[in-house]
Amino acid sequence: MRNLYWFLFLFLGAVVGLTFTELFEPSSSVMNYLILFLCLLLVVRYFLRNFSGQKKYPNQKNYPNPVSYSKDKKRHVPIYRRAIEAFEEKAYERAVKELTPLAKDGDVSAQYLLGGFFSQRKDMFKNDTTAVKWFKQAARQGMPQAQYAVGECYYRGEGIVQSYQKAREAFECAADQNYPEAHFSLGMVYAKGQGVSVDYQKAFDYLLISAKAGVEEAQRNLAEMYYHGLGVKADKKKAMKWTKRAARQGDHAAEHNLAVAYQSGEAVWKNTLLSKLWFRRSRQSFPLKVKDIWFKAYGITPERMSFNEENQASIVSNTKKLAEQGKAEAQFELGQLYFQGHGIQANETMAHRWWYVAAQQGHPEAQKQLAKLNRAYPA
């Protein structure tokens, strides 16, 4: 309905412009240009509202940076900075050496950063057990980020015995301090019934809090609950509202869902142009290396790199061939195709399978997507 109002404004603007042209002949040219300019602004505003970049919302909370918990910022922040720079340069031993004395002295920010360093290292010295130790020490001092990290470790069984119950308890500690990601994780725990009975009402309540705080995964899953009527009365318009918010913040699954909605005209005005734009944007998440494989091995040029009826079957078929040959990049990409339903029927089980195979070969994006899929969607 809102889009209809904008089109009516455009029509009325054109009528007013023509009217002024007839009534005020001497100044008709200037007035006409002015009205046309205003109409153009309305058109631009319409497209910006429907296809914009990341958007901040009034109630979105910018949670404090972990280093802000330091009791002696003037002396400690430069040490944090040197450690982070060393970690980014893959000088892991130097990064750990910088922070360990502070962490042993009880500095909560150093403890949290050390936990992150040990959990994210890419070399043979990656140590999830040590990461959990430092996360727990920071969590005991009340840092919500660390409490959430402990919950994630329990949830996935990384460096500690897997326990949904302890994960939920850790998430609740962080949620009590209004940490938005913790509300999202609690929502998914109740939606999936992991360690608790399935409770869509609680899941909806937690997801709503997180979505309002700007967590795009929560916004997308909240949209799914509105769409299917889980824990709330089904409302496709509200589902589209939250899908748009998640898409504008860069959630690729939401971008794809929004493209499909504009294509079919379900709960939104059918708009082929916006559908194509969102489809194109959702495909930007595909790894460049896989695109290169397609270009070189199968002669698919960038101009043809689109999932239309002419080439989508070929792209899926060729990706399957490469995946079955053991190419980790292709295995990850095949998981993407199954997950987003590009050129093939969407199947999260198959997406999970191929991401798992790629993750076993050490593909970092597959490992990340696998973890996200495991906790982001109801079973």
Stated plainly, the CATH topology of the largest domain is called Serine Threonine Protein Phosphatase 5, Tetratricopeptide repeat
By DSSP (H or I, 4+ residues per run), the number of helices equals 19
Count of individual beta strands: 0
The helix-strand sequence is: HHHHHHHHHHHHHHHHHHH
Query: Overall pLDDT, averaged?
Result: 77
How much helix, percentage-wise, in residues? 55-70%
Largest sheet: none
Named at the architecture level, the CATH assignment of the largest domain is Alpha Horseshoe
**Per the principal axes of the C-alpha atoms, what is the gross shape?**
globular
The radius of gyration over CA amounts to 25 Å
Going by helix content, strand content and strand pairing, the class is mainly alpha
- Please write the CATH class name of the largest domain: Mainly Alpha
Unreliable residue runs: 52-61, 286-310
Counting structural domains, the number is 3
In short:
This protein has helices at residues 2-23, 28-50, 73-88, 92-104, 108-120, 128-140, 144-156, 164-175, 180-192, 200-212, 216-228, 236-248, 252-264, 272-282, 288-298, 312-324, 328-340, 348-360, 364-376. By secondary structure, the protein is mainly α.
